[in-house]
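Hi team,

As requested, here is the filled-out complex form for the NAP run. I kept the field names the same as last time so the parser does not choke. Let me know if anything looks off before we queue the next batch.

— J.
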Amino acid sequence: MIYDVAIIGGGPAGLAAGLYAARAKLSTIIIEKGADGGQIATTDEVENYPGAMEDATGPKLVARMLEQAKTFGASRVSDEITEVDFSDKIKVLKSAKEEYKARAVIIATGAVPRLIGAPGEKELTGRGVSYCATCDAAFFQDLEVYVMGGGDTAVEEAIYLTKFAKKVTIIHRRDELRAAKSIQEKAFKNEKIEFMWDTVITEIKGDGMLESFVVKNLKTEEEREIFPDEEDGAFGIFVFIGYLPATELFKDIIHMERDYIVTDENMKTNIPGVFAAGDNRVKSLRQVVTATSDGAIAAVQAEKYIEDNF
Ligand code: NAP
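And here is what came back:
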């Protein structure tokens, strides 16, 4: 079968694109390799998406977005695209088990967390080192946790972690936060949150489980090793130092800047019939509201492209 629109990625951008494409009566497939929702699926509070109030968690919002897209006829499959061929008018997306053909493609692959790059980090991921507070906070009930980063995500997730941890220390490489002032204020008021300024994590240690880590003060160059409280015997590190676009698959095929896909305001890439939407493209604000907006625009433009070209 040749679909009208194939969407790679089931985060807010992909799901919104799916909703708009299917509602326009285009045969639409959403291909997602993991859990639906992308980053938002692991976000506890989504209080800045219009209409979403205190009770709107990421998973709830995603479940409703998917349901809505399916209601209009979009199909959703679990599969990982490993190769693309955009050289002909009919685009081909390949996975290990399947080949998907479509008249238009919307790339909504989002972004993945940036790693610290410290020795021990990869080995101890999921063993005391985490990139998702919603997923792992409960493991640190009444323990200490350290959060690396100073942006909106780090500070918001640090606040969330105080619901579980007995103390949260934010480790930031500068002496002022990047996070929005309103978010900063909440953190400064929170008695469970402490700060370690001008500091980075340089090494993470443990034999199968996080046991200690080394921090370096960038101003004094002083290094010291941090251990859990003796009574606790365990602690955690949460890393929120930004995200990297998931665009590897399109290198040398699609025009990019610093690994982000370049589009025009209609979400068009340099290849006719291929659109990009969401956090993987060059843009000024990466939020759910802008991702869904990108998805809607990409779908409407895909519809126009198909009308004009097929
Ligand atoms: P971000 O704004 O890029 O912040 C990344 C943080 O990590 C910065 O504080 C940065 O330090 C630090 N950092 C980066 N690389 C580092 C490294 N190698 N070592 C140590 N520290 C490093 O990322 P984000 O917080 O994930 O936010 C991403 C986007 O989503 C932003 O546009 C943000 O506004 C948005 N967002 C918004 C909300 C909200 O509005 N509620 C919530 C979450 C995210 P420096 O400050 O020194 O650069």
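Two things worth flagging: The chain has a mean pLDDT of 95. DSSP finds six helices and 19 strands in the chain.

Thanks,
J.
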